[in-house]
TrEMBL record:
This protein's pathway: Amino-acid biosynthesis; L-tryptophan biosynthesis; L-tryptophan from chorismate: step 4/5
Keywords, sorted A to Z: Amino-acid biosynthesis, Aromatic amino acid biosynthesis, Decarboxylase, Lyase, Tryptophan biosynthesis
Species the sequence originates in: Paeniroseomonas aquatica
Origin organism lineage: Bacteria, Pseudomonadati, Pseudomonadota, Alphaproteobacteria, Acetobacterales
CDD domains: IGPS
Protein name: Indole-3-glycerol phosphate synthase
Length: 276
C-alpha cells in the first residue's frame, strides 16, 4: 500500500491533535506494511457480523431512556493513567449489567495505552455493540476496525478533510458498520451534516486546552437536525449533567473517564442511565 498522504481540514489543527495525527499516519504506514490492504480486507469480510449500533441507541431513546455509550480506556493525554488494574472483559460485563447501550473502546496505544485486543476482549465478553475509538485517517484502519470486530468507527471532523471523511464513511457503510462523526464547533457541525450518518457526537473537550465544558453541547445540540441523533461526549459526570444534556436534545451520551475512575462501574453507569 502506498503511504497515505496527510490531508488536513482548511482550518488549523490544534497542536495536540496535530501531534497525534502525525504519529497516527506513521503507525498506519508500519501496520499496513505488516498486513497489506488485501489481507486486512479479507479479514474484515471474514469477521463476525456487526451488531447494530444505531438501532440499539434508537431503541432506548424511543423508550424514553438514556443511551449510554460507556467507554473503556486505560489512560488519556489529559488524565494520565486512569485505571489500573485494567480488565476490559470485566469492565464490559459491568457496563452491560449497569444498563449501558453500547461500548466505546480505545485502541490507540501511544496516547491512550489502548490495543486492538482490548476491543476484541470487551466485545467477546458481552452482547453490546462496540465503537472503535481511535484516530481514523486512512481506509486501511476502517477494514482493520471491522476485522477486529468493531461495529462502529469514530470520524473526527477536526482531523479530516471532507473528502477523507466521506471516503472513510463509505467504506464503513459498505461493511455494514455505523459511523459516529465528532464535532467541536458550529463549522465542524455544518461539515459533518454532509455525511450520511445519523450519529453526531458533540465533544465538550477543547482540543487546544483539553478542558471540558458541557455548555458546548448545550450550544450545538439544538442545531442538530431532527433526523440526526446527537451524542454528547466528554465532561459528563453526574445525573444532573445527563439531565442538562437531555434538556437540549442529547439523550445519548458517551462517558469515559468519570466512569473509569469509579470503583463500581456498574453502579456508576446505572446512575447515569436512570438519571431521567
Amino acid at each position: 500500500m502506498n503511504a497515505p498522504i496527510i490531508v488536513t481540514p482548511s482550518h488549523a489543527v490544534p497542536d495536540t491533535l496535530a501531534r497525534i495525527l502525525a504519529d497516527k499516519y506513521e503507525e498506519v504506514r508500519a501496520r499496513s506494511a505488516a498486513t497489506p490492504m488485501a489481507e486486512i480486507e479479507r479479514q474484515a469480510h471474514a469477521a463476525t457480523p456487526p451488531r447494530d449500533f444505531v438501532a440499539a441507541l434508537c431503541e432506548v431513546v424511543a423508550d424514553g431512556r438514556v443511551g449510554l455509550i460507556a467507554e473503556i480506556k486505560r489512560a488519556s493525554p489529559s488524565g494520565g493513567l486512569i485505571r489500573d488494574p485494567f480488565e476490559p472483559a470485566a469492565l464490559a460485563q459491568d457496563y452491560a449489567r449497569g444498563g449501558a447501550t453500547c461500548l466505546s473502546v480505545l485502541t490507540d496505544a501511544p496516547y491512550f495505552q489502548g490495543t486492538t485486543e482490548h476491543l476484541k476482549t470487551a466485545r467477546a465478553a458481552c452482547t453490546l455493540p462496540v465503537l472503535r475509538k481511535d484516530f481514523m485517517v486512512h481506509p486501511w484502519q476502517v477494514f482493520e476496525a471491522r476485522a477486529m470486530g468493531a461495529d462502529c468507527i469514530l470520524l473526527i471532523m477536526a482531523a479530516l478533510a471532507d473528502r477523507q471523511a466521506e471516503e472513510l464513511e463509505e467504506i464503513a457503510r459498505s461493511l455494514d458498520m455505523a459511523v459516529l462523526v465528532e464535532v467541536h464547533d458550529r463549522a465542524e457541525l455544518d461539515r459533518a451534516l454532509g455525511l450520511q450518518t445519523r450519529l453526531v457526537g458533540i465533544n465538550n473537550r477543547n482540543l487546544r486546552t483539553l478542558q471540558t465544558d458541557i455548555a458546548t453541547s448545550e450550544a450545538l445540540c439544538p442545531l442538530v437536525p431532527a433526523d440526526r441523533i446527537p451524542v454528547a461526549e466528554s465532561g459528563i459526570r453526574t445525573p444532573d449533567d445527563v439531565r442538562r444534556m437531555a434538556a437540549v436534545g442529547a439523550r445519548c451520551i458517551l462517558v469515559g473517564e468519570s466512569l473509569m475512575r469509579q470503583p463500581d462501574v456498574a453502579a456508576a453507569a446505572g446512575e447515569l442511565v436512570h438519571a431521567l
